[in-house]
Design goal:
Elements lengths: L2 E6 L4 E6 L12 E3 L11 H4 L6 E6 L7 E9 L2 E9 L8 E6 L8 E6 L5 E5 L10 E5 L10 E5 L1 E9 L4 E10 L2 E13 L4 E5 L5 E4 L10 E6 L6 E6 L2 E6 L4 E4 L12 E6 L7 E5 L13 E5 L6 E6 L8 E3 L6
Antiparallel strand pairs: 1-2, 1-25, 2-3, 4-5, 5-6, 6-7, 8-9, 9-10, 10-11, 12-13, 13-14, 14-15, 14-16, 17-18, 18-19, 19-20, 21-22, 22-23, 23-24
């Protein structure tokens, strides 16, 4: 797991780098993906991506026999796709397996994707302050590339993060709920049922874990990312605008990451996770949220010591092109 995937918003692409390389640029990247017509994507795909890639996942999947053994789920703006990563048959790396473009009037402001083991695509439409658009988690049936509007849906206000959990057979999501006029933020759990062609999605309310909006230690603010803990199936990594946490699934507790890796209230974390192993680094991306080229993106991926939380090193790109950084592994956990 030496490879890190980042979004390159300037080139509207996915880039893969080895974190051991001290320089991250076009000369060192291991792979770059763009949704171009030569790979089967719509001529309007790049235009529909808006500001560029927002989320990206690599997963092993049984959903595309004869086409791919592993695939990437990619989201950007009004565009969604499932992309061959380990191709089979006559397919090539990067080739389209499934794609959807929303019309501008239906833009749900998607913020996260997850590829399920059977090949269907989970999507979080954040839809903040956009009545009738987003505020849901959907499971798209991707079995037929010609069918792009067949889905199951569950409501979730400001849905922002998704993670499939093979240990619990649960789709975790970060989102918001209103209770007596007040916002509560945290983690929601969904049971995915039905078939590949006719999926269903139902919240398991018993696994819901929320806190009132506010500063930690008792509050949470706007969930933004969920990542696996490769060393403990009972835990996952949770990030929001109050910091980075380790979430215990059975105890339903949020424990702040150590030291500087936890960051501080008021930060704008876009992604967080941890490489496997005792010495595996905690990986964080954070935007400035100030007017300018780094308002929603950054040029830096930060790597922290897992024991102390001290900053170990950073990797930078030539411009503020990074939204999220992912450990590029096909494992769910």
């Amino acid at each position: 797991m030496d490879c890190i995937a980042i979004s390159n918003t300037a080139e509207k692409s996915v880039e893969i780098h080895n974190y051991n390389d001290t320089t991250w640029d076009a000369s060192t990247r291991l792979w770059q993906f763009k949704p171009v017509p030569e790979l089967g994507f719509s001529p309007d795909a790049i235009k529909a991506m808006g500001a560029g890639v927002g989320d990206l996942k690599l997963r092993n999947t049984t959903g595309f026999p004869g086409k791919a053994a592993s695939a990437c789920a990619v989201q950007g703006g009004r565009w969604l796709a499932v992309v061959a990563h380990e191709p089979a048959g006559n397919h090539v790396k990067g080739q389209k397996l499934w794609e959807k473009i929303y019309p501008p009037a239906e833009d749900p402001n998607n913020h996260a994707v997850e590829l399920l083991p059977n090949g269907n695509l989970a999507v979080a439409g954040t839809g903040q302050r956009r009545p009738g658009k987003g505020n849901w988690v959907r499971i798209y049936n991707t079995s037929n590339p010609a069918v792009t509007d067949d889905y199951a849906e569950a409501p979730l206000y400001a849905a922002h993060a998704l993670l499939w959990d093979p240990a619990y057979n649960i789709l975790w999501a970060g989102g918001t709920i209103h209770i007596e006029g007040k916002e509560w933020h945290g983690i929601f759990a969904y049971i995915i049922g039905g078939t590949r062609e006719r999926p269903t999605i139902t919240e398991d309310v018993s696994k819901r874990s929320i806190r009132p909006r506010g500063a930690s230690p008792n509050g949470l603010k706007w969930p933004h990312d969920l990542s696996p803990d490769f060393d403990d199936i009972n835990k996952l990594w949770y990030a929001d605008h109050s910091g980075v946490y380790v979430y215990n699934k059975t105890e339903k507790t949020f424990t702040p990451a150590p030291g500087d890796a936890r960051r501080f209230d008021g930060v704008n974390i876009k992604s967080a996770g941890k490489l496997p192993g005792k010495n595996g680094k905690i990986i964080v991306t954070e935007s400035s949220n100030k007017p300018g080229p780094c308002r929603y993106t950054t040029n830096t991926v930060s790597f922290y010591d897992p024991a102390t939380g001290d900053l170990s090193f950073t990797r930078t790109t030539p411009a503020c092109t990074i939204y999220r950084a992912r450990i590029w592994s096909p494992r769910y956990q």
